[in-house]
Amino acid sequence: MWKETTGGVCAAKGFKAAGVHCGVKAGSSPEKNDLAMILSERECVAAATYTLNRVKAAPLYVTMEHLEDGVCRGIIANSGNANACCPLSHENAKAMCQFAAQATGLKAEDFVVASTGVIGQTINIQAIQSGVPGLAAALSENGSEQAERAIMTTDTVPKTAAVELELGGKTVTIGAIAKGSGMIHPNMGTMLAFITTDCDISQEMLEDALRQIVGRTFNRVTVDGDTSTNDMCVVLANGLAGNPLIEWKDENYHAFYEALEQVCRTLARKIAADGEGASRLITCTVHHARSEESAERLAKAVVGSSLVKAAMFGTDANWGRVLCAMGYSKAPFRPEYVDIKFASAAGEVEVCRQGDGLNFDEEKAKQVLSQDEVTIDVNLNEGGEQATCWGCDLTYDYVKINGDYRT
Amino acid sequence: MWKETTGGVCAAKGFKAAGVHCGVKAGSSPEKNDLAMILSERECVAAATYTLNRVKAAPLYVTMEHLEDGVCRGIIANSGNANACCPLSHENAKAMCQFAAQATGLKAEDFVVASTGVIGQTINIQAIQSGVPGLAAALSENGSEQAERAIMTTDTVPKTAAVELELGGKTVTIGAIAKGSGMIHPNMGTMLAFITTDCDISQEMLEDALRQIVGRTFNRVTVDGDTSTNDMCVVLANGLAGNPLIEWKDENYHAFYEALEQVCRTLARKIAADGEGASRLITCTVHHARSEESAERLAKAVVGSSLVKAAMFGTDANWGRVLCAMGYSKAPFRPEYVDIKFASAAGEVEVCRQGDGLNFDEEKAKQVLSQDEVTIDVNLNEGGEQATCWGCDLTYDYVKINGDYRT
Q: Closest partner residue to A403 among B311, B352, B403, by Cβ?
């Protein structure tokens, strides 16, 4: 059983991190970090998932290449420019790894590289080159927050999580940082998430766990339905905890899996709650579905609906939009069996039973919907499966932020 | 060859229309019509397309039943309540046809019925019952605009179109009214569109033409990605023009098809331009695709992207979001072949060639994007097919309108 801890991406043994300002984006504040590094003191097995967007930014291709052997030592990442869709994007992603290698005495292939920001503008590679030596010099066991701040874009709060668990008498720790705000949508067009652990685990098992967990956490978040070109989730495991090596799906694997899922679920909820302009986190759980897949599809349609999102912003218990979104999700269900409730810290209010509207207390509903976290609870009354997806409301600020992001 | 004319849904011979206020929605202004009727002086062949939402409102099922024989005489429709997802919805939809029949001396089965408004609240059927006699008495050849106003919800302008053409020495006229603003999305979860014509055409040919044309016009409009439970497109043809009967795909069929397509395209553009809170019409044309289907899917993803829509609101030439939206559309294309231009009455600006960004004049781009109608022109450089989709920008007002629509 895991318990929460602190330290973010440096919580696990043998990991250091740093974040500095180097000026990737012209005119950016010197207060805003834009270059991050995470480094393990020894080689890690690594696994990653990538955006499903057909247009993938150059850093993703370079990372795939560098992870072909399943091992690496560290991560270099920048905000302020996506390094995507420019003639020199690929060379510049390679160069970032080269700079990191020079500053640390390692090889370029030892690094994963990630970028986030505007697409289609040439990245200021000189700024990165001049920033890397100072970045490497700043690496520290207390560097998680600085690194996190360096990958933030329109994020309003840093997103971090860490848990520890006992495996074979040893303490194993998993820590992470993530960024993500706009362009957050299911299917791993999601965000940047960097996860580190001192767990001793085979690359195969690590990859297997990550792929499944990402499907149930990050891929169930939606902010605006857009899927970015740049986003990835990477996990590095350096084995320093000294636990018995996890190489098949034994008890220790399942304990590790649960702990890693907790880290990813925590970050997923934080990303949804910090959706661009969001004023509240919206969770939709679909219960008693015939399959987890339909439940997920229905829950995603609900949290992804602009009309539901706008109603949640307006604390309007317009449950017809929930049923309507389910209807166009393409998942099979019987409208005439559906029950819907809204719930939050202020209580719950049932609004629809067996597909028909109930008379409910509008004042009470307003109170329920006015909380920071609101749950839309859907019961299909058909089977034994369920799924939860996360999103946020649609606000004036979303439009403001995205009406003029580039300039 | 068709030419534009006036008169809306009464432009064709033998059709009358009316719109009145009956108070469907409690507290609504007596100035706002909410009940409409369209009537042909003789029997029409009829065809209809319906929302693909799995949750379909009761009026759609009643309409399907009444059109099983392919003929009808008129349409009764209300705004202010969707008559969906309530225990009495089906009975009430039947009752609306019954009231229309009583007031006109016809049968309930002679009527198509449609509703638009909030889902899940019981419709005020007494208000409709008391309104119908006055509605029938008001039927007139000049009633198109009153009828149009009666089906508007958050629409800010009435939407109407009419064309006439010569077929076999006779003048054939096609006229229409439509409503649609929020919840507008491809696949006929679209809007209400009522089309009338005096063309003499078989039911089979009429249905065939309508289905194809809806696929290329209304189904290529998106406002917010939501697909309503209530929307339908109906065409009635009473044959009064006296043209040679169209019963197969001859020259006259093709001429009629083109004219009907023009009517539907005009309404589709008007619906997109009047998207909730919209400040401009966004057209995306994808050229030189390998198939019309991929071109359509790509163009829809572009006009449907919240990030593209917000950028258009902000007159920000953020073409990376265009390429990104194409990337997650699931249509096949080669990013490295793609050219992108923005165009409007103020000129055009090329922003991306072969997948890479170009240096362009930001001031000029702002001018181009500041017009009421902006085109995003994508060239895939792969094949000979193309498709055009329509949408609108995402504005503060969209959020405002939808944050508190129900109450």
A: B311
* Long-range Cβ contact pairs of A336-341 (< 8 A, separation 24 or more): A337/A380, A337/A381, A337/A382, A338/A378, A338/A379, A338/A380, A338/A381, A339/A378, A339/A379, A339/A381, A340/A376, A340/A377, A340/A378, A340/A379, A341/A376, A341/A377, A341/A379
Beta bridge partners of A76: A37, A113
Nearest by CB: B320 against A84, A351, A400: A84
Between 3.30.1300.10, 3.10.580.10, 1.10.1660.10, 3.10.20.340, what CATH number should domain A281-403 receive? 3.10.20.340
Give dist(CA B268, CA A90) in Å, integer: 42
Classify B3-273 by CATH class: alpha beta
Judge if pTM exceeds 0.95: no
Q: Active site includes B190?
A: yes
If phi > 0 it is left, if psi is from -120 to 50 it is alpha, else beta; for residue A300 that is alpha
- Encode burial over B51-80: b for 16+ CB neighbours within 10 A, e otherwise: bbbbbbbbbbbbbeebbeeebbbbbbbbbb
Residues of chain A with C-beta less than 8 angstroms from the C-beta of B185: 328
Closest CA to B183 of B235, B122, B234, B117: B117
Distance from CA of A259 to the nearest CA of B (A): 31
Residue identified by tokens 């959020």 is B399
Question: Looking at chain B, which residue has its C-alpha nearest residue A302?
Answer: B226
A405 contacts B320? CB cut-off 8 A = no
ipTM of the complex: 0.71
| Cβ–Cβ below 8 Å for A54 and B333 | yes
Alpha-carbon gap: B306 to the closest alpha carbon of chain A (Å): 6
Which residue of the set B190, B197, B217, B395 is catalytic?
A: B190
Chain A hits for B403, Cβ within 8 Å? 310-311, 313-314, 316
CA nearest A82 in B: which residue? B320
- Cβ contacts (< 8 Å) between B54 and chain A: which residues? 326-329, 332-333, 335
DSSP string, A307-362: HHHHHHHTT---HHHHHHHHHTS-----GGG-EEEEEETTEEEEEEETTEEPP--H
Determine which one of A49, A160, A173, A190 is catalytic.
A190
Q: So where are chain B's domains?
A: 3-273, 281-403
Q: How many inter-chain contacts (A to B, CB under 8 Å) are there?
A: 214
CB contact under 8 A, A305 and B225: yes
Residue that is written with structure tokens 């520890």 in the block:
A164
The two structure tokens encoding residue A123? 């990245």
CA distance A8 to chain B (A): 31
Reading chain B (407 residues) residue by residue, the pLDDT tens digits are 899 999 999 999 999 999 999 999 988 899 999 999 999 999 999 999 998 788 889 999 999 999 999 999 999 999 999 998 888 999 999 999 999 999 999 999 999 999 998 888 899 999 999 999 999 999 999 999 999 999 998 888 899 999 999 999 999 999 999 998 654 443 333 489 999 999 999 999 999 999 999 999 988 887 665 667 788 999 999 999 999 999 999 999 999 999 999 999 999 999 888 877 788 999 999 999 999 999 999 999 999 888 898 889 999 999 988 998 898 888 999 999 999 999 999 999 999 999 998 999 999 999 999 999 999 999 999 999 999 999 988 887 777 766 765 54
pLDDT value at residue B372: 92
Counting beta carbons within 10 angstroms of the beta carbon of residue B358, is it exposed (0 to 12), middle (13 to 18) or buried (19 or more)? Answer: middle
- Where does B137-218 show beta strands of DSSP type E? 159-167, 170-179, 192-197
Q: Are A307 and B399 in contact (CB under 8 A)?
A: no
Q: How far is B146 from chain A (nearest CA, A)?
A: 28
Cα B131–chain centre separation: 26
Q: Which residues in chain B are closer than 8 Å to A354, comparing Cβ atoms?
A: none
